[in-house]
Write the C-alpha cells for this entry.
Amino acid sequence: MIQTKTASDKPPIKLLIVDDSWVLRRVLRGTLSQRDDIEIVGEATNGVEALDLILKLGPDVILLDVEMPVMDGMTTLQHLMIHTPTPVIMLSSLSKWGSARCFDALKYGAIDFVSKNSFFQGIDGTAHSKLVIGKVLAAAGMNVSTIDPMQVKTGSTEFKAVEQVVFCEECGTRNSAVKSSVEVSIVRCKKCGDEISTAADQRHRRMNYLTVIGSGASGYGNLLKIIPEFTPDMGGAIFVMIRDGLEPVKSFVQYLDSISDFQVAMGENGAAVEGGCCYIFSAEQDVTLSPYSGTYSLQIERIGNEFEDNSIDTLMHSVVAHLGERSQAVLLSGDKSDGSRGMDKIIEKKGNGIILSPAQCLHKHMVTNPSVRHSLQTDLDEFSLAAEIRKNHFLNKEMVVTA
C-alpha cells in the first residue's frame, strides 16, 4: 500500500476529478486521498459542472472523462484550453492508448491519456496507485499554453536566402544562384549564356540535411504540435524515433500524416530517404542509415517487444557518421536518457542540438543532461522549437537544378 505522510513545505497538488461514474470517482478518491502531496479539491459529473469548479477552485491538475452527459470531455477540454489552460489527464472507457480519439485529446491540449479499463483489469492495488499517482505528479510539473481549436495553422515560414547549385545541360558548367523567395527565376550560365529555370517543377531536391527527433511515449502531444508546422519546401528530411511499441507508433503515423503538409510515413527497410518527408520509427526497431546510389537508404531490423535503451543514440550516431554537420539532434519529453550520447556526437561534429523546454515535457529526464552539458536553450516551446528546426533546414538547403 502506497501511503506516506511526511511534513513538507510544498503545498499539495490541487486535483479536480471529472467523471460521471461514481464508482471510478470512489476508486480514485481511495487511491489519491492517502497522499499528503495531493489534495482532491472537488468532483464533477459533467463538463458544465467542471468548468464552473475550475474557475472557483483553480486546480493544478484535472482528471477528465471523455464520455460524459451534458458536455463531454473533448468539448470541455477545448473550452478549458482556451480560457484557463491546465494540465489535463484524459480518461476513457471506450478508447484506448494509441487510438485516434487519444491523439485528438493530445492535439487539443491534454498531456496524458488513460484507458479506464486499466483501473479494473488485472493490476493490483499497489501498481494501480503507482500508475495514477505518477501521472498526477508528472502533470503538475508541466506548463500548459492556450490552444484555440479554431486557429488555423498555416505552417508558413520566413523564406531564407538559399544558395542553389545549378548545372547547365548545354555545357555542363556549375553555376550558383541565391534565391530569397519562392518565385520562379532564371539563371544564366556563366560560360555559354544558356538560360536555366529554377521553377519548382524543374528542379531536383537532394536529401542533404537531416533532423533526428528523439521522444519518449510521453512526447506524442509535443510531436502533434511540432510536425504539422513543417513544410516540404524547407528541404531535407526528418527522422523521429519514439520509445514506444510498434503498433501505437503505426497508429500515430497514420493520424499525424492526416494533419500534416509534410509527408509522414513509417520507415521501411530498404526505402530511399527523400527530402520533404518525415520518417517515424518505434524503439522496437534498430535503424541505421546507409549510402545508396547517390542518396541514402534505411536499414531496419526488428528488435522485439523489449526495446533497448539506446535506440535513439544508435540512429543519431548513424546519421552523423554520414552527414556530419548537416545533421541536427532534437530531444523531447521522455523518461530515459536515450539520445543524450547521440546528441553529443552530432554537436561534436558541428551539427545542431535542440531540446524542448523542460516545462513543456511531461517527463524531463531525456532533456536534462544534454541541456546542462551543452548549455542549450531551455525555453523553447513546441512552436518555437519547430521554427528553429525549420530555420536550420532552410539555411542548409541546397538544390541541384538542371536546365
In short: The domain at 13-140 is CATH 3.40.50.2300 (Rossmann fold).
